[in-house]
Amino acid sequence: MSNKIVIIGAGFAGVWSALSARRLINQANKASEFEIQIIAPEPVLVMRPRLYESNASSLVHNLEALFQAADIKFTPGTARTIHPSEKSISVETTSGVSTLIPYDRLILAAGSSVIRPASIPGLEQHAFDIDSLPSAIKLEAHLEGLTSLPASPSRDTIVVCGAGFTGIELAAELPKRVQQLTNPRIILVGNAPDLAPDLGAGPRPTITAALNALGVECKLGAGITAVDADSVTLSSGERIQTNTAVWTAGVRATPLTQQIPGPRDAFSRLHVDPYLRVPSADGIYASGDAAAALADGKTNYAFMSCQHALQLGRVAGYNAAAELLGQRVMEYSQPTYNCCLDLGPWGAVVSGGWDEKRVKVEGDLAKRVKTYINQELIYPPGDVVEALGSAAPFEIDSDGLFEHLVKVVG
Questions:
Q1: Lowest mean pLDDT: which of 101-110, 377-386, 387-396?
Q2: Phi, psi of 184 (to 5 degrees)
Q3: What CATH architecture does domain 123-249 belong to?
Q4: What is the rounded distance in angstroms from the CA atom of residue 273 to the CA atom of residue 18?
Q5: pLDDT at 355
Q6: Fewer beta carbons below 10 Å: N end or C end of the chain?
Q7: What is residue 317's three-state secondary structure?
């Protein structure tokens, strides 16, 4: 009798869930008894960590050939409703057909999306974002078209709303992307009193120095209260003239987490056990941005990041297959943490540690590490043998990986 593993989402966690499950099934010589199926709109991996860069339309990786070679079935469509008690999913295919897909094990890896608070007038209508490929392409077209507008403070000012990881990377990259403007003004706005509050105090002096060198202005301690076609208004009462407001402040896990019973965290992620199972839903795993998973076995949870999604996917896929094969499941663990932040033409900064977040390297060497991660490390191999070999869910040592990357690029 066939065993069916269904994965919702073709992001980093979804892709590596499928490859990890296939690897274990093949090792057990049970390929004919299993079906692995991915549900997503397209068989492509959007390089979401890179959407702050230019040439957004190129930041996709086609997965069709890899899926075929690995015997992973792909269904183009959108999962609309999960039926945990029936172990099935209602799916609307891209051709508009509604279908019901059963599963023996389900891995929810449908990612997250940016939060646009309805309490901010005009935000939905007038702000850009770089949360998805279409939105990044839309922003790029807008930036390239600014020179067709009459010169004005509104035209030449770009306001990045949110002074966290994404906002900083975008703000640092923008001076290079809007060189066509005579006097571009980049303003980074954050409602917290400090720059990059989640990144800690360690890298803050480096980030501040880089933004100053790039000419990026920072307005902190005042959030956005309104957006219109020509300006943003801050909680301080200040009004900044701009035709380009880019919202980067906060994300929330896929709404599909609301359809699965069990507790969720502030990001709407499902709490999972050490094996990434949702304890209150038989046969369901959560992975990537959908999972609130303890990374170090203590108090630190995995971040909604590519770094953690890659390993969360490997473990979820392995365990879903292992359960059906009657094999021992393994715990998810990423006890060490390093953060690599791009700072545009200035360079980058790498900081390490869950709590202390001390700077390990900055400037040009850090930039080479970041470039290698963005352009090489996060892409799945095209060769199926290499891809399956890379899907083993061994414990990730972020410190060791960082040291290796420095040797590779240095």
A1: 387-396
A2: -70, 145
A3: 3-Layer(bba) Sandwich (3.50)
A4: 20
A5: 86
A6: N
A7: helix
Residue 296 to residue 350: CA distance in whole angstroms = 20
Q: How many C-beta atoms surround the C-beta of residue 282 within 10 A? A: 12
Instruction: Write down the pLDDT at residue 1.
Output: 44
Strands (E), 204-353: 217-220, 224-228, 231-234, 239-241, 244-247, 251-253, 270-271, 284-286, 291-292, 338-342, 348-352
Question: Between the CA of residue 251 and those of 35, 154, 304, 308, what are the distances in Å?
Answer: 32, 27, 9, 16
CA-to-CA distance for 392 and 387, rounded, in angstroms?
Answer: 10
Q: What is the pTM of this model?
A: 0.96
Count CA within 13 A, CB hemisphere, residue 406.
Answer: 16
Helices marked H in 42-132 — which ranges? Answer: 64-69, 123-126
* Enclosing H/E stretch for 369: helix 364-372
What does the pLDDT average to over 215-225? 97
3-state helix, strand, coil in the chain (%, to 5): 35, 25, 40
User: Right CATH number for 3-113+252-335 from 3.50.50.60, 3.40.50.720, 3.30.70.100, 1.10.10.10?
Assistant: 3.50.50.60
Kindly give the interhelix angle for 306-325 and 12-27, rounded to the nearest 10 degrees. Answer: 30
Structure tokens at 135: 């939105």
Query: How many residues would you count in the chain?
Result: 410
Q: Strands 358-363, 348-352: parallel, antiparallel or unpaired by DSSP?
A: antiparallel
Angstrom distances, CA of residue 218 to CA of 127, 130, 186, 278, 350: 19, 20, 9, 41, 21
Do 58 and 144 contact (CB within 8 A), yes or no? no
Query: Where are the domains positioned within the chain?
Result: 3-113+252-335, 123-249
